[in-house]
Design a protein that fits this description.
about 180 residues; 6 helices; about 80% helix; mainly alpha; single chain
Length: about 180
């Protein structure tokens, strides 16, 4: 290498770029792990609980309104083998759901790894260009920012999002009953 060539990278843009990439890695990693460990389970449990409550509440009401003859017909249908097969079919995990969720989780993990590789390449390139990045400052700054943002997001999620009801509770039961009545009434 010619000693007359000086290393003069654009320090501001390099520091700024590395700071942005570290920021993106922190955000994406935290959100991905929050989703994988907590949010996906909370949302699944909430939907399952809501569906169960709505079906139990409204099916019981409708069964009470059936005539003795209608109850007899329903009882004979429930005992049929086809209904048992249908029930068994839905006891297994849905392949579409399993494959989709595997893809979602894998995509998050691959994205995190690619971002980290990109950061390592940029740091290595900057060292080759004779520029020492203030990595300690960048990481400390990002940790402080994400601690504050994380606390705010946790409070927002716990006290606002978890209390929000996205659909009118009676929507599913009304739709289910309307469909049943359309086919059996």
């Amino acid at each position: 290498m010619n000693s007359n060539i000086s290393c003069t990278p654009h320090k501001f843009y390099l520091n700024f770029g590395v700071n942005i990439i570290v920021h993106i890695i922190f955000i994406f990693t935290i959100l991905a792990f929050l989703f994988m460990l907590f949010i996906s389970k909370i949302s699944s449990n909430a939907i399952n609980r809501e569906i169960t409550d709505l079906i139990n509440e409204n099916i019981n009401k409708e069964i009470e309104n059936l005539s003795p003859e209608q109850k007899k017909i329903m009882n004979s249908y429930i005992k049929k083998e086809e209904l048992k097969k249908l029930s068994e079919l839905y006891n297994e995990e849905d392949d579409t759901r399993r494959v989709n969720n595997f893809f979602v989780y894998s995509s998050m993990k691959i994205t995190i790894v690619l971002l980290i590789i990109m950061l390592i390449l940029i740091i290595a390139t900057s060292k080759l260009l004779c520029h020492k990045l203030p990595l300690k400052n960048i990481f400390i700054e990002n940790i402080i920012i994400f601690t504050g943002v994380g606390i705010i997001e946790f409070v927002f999620f716990k006290y606002i999002i978890l209390k929000y009801i996205p659909v009118e509770p009676s929507f599913m039961s009304k739709y289910l009953l309307k469909t049943i009545k359309k086919h059996f009434a």
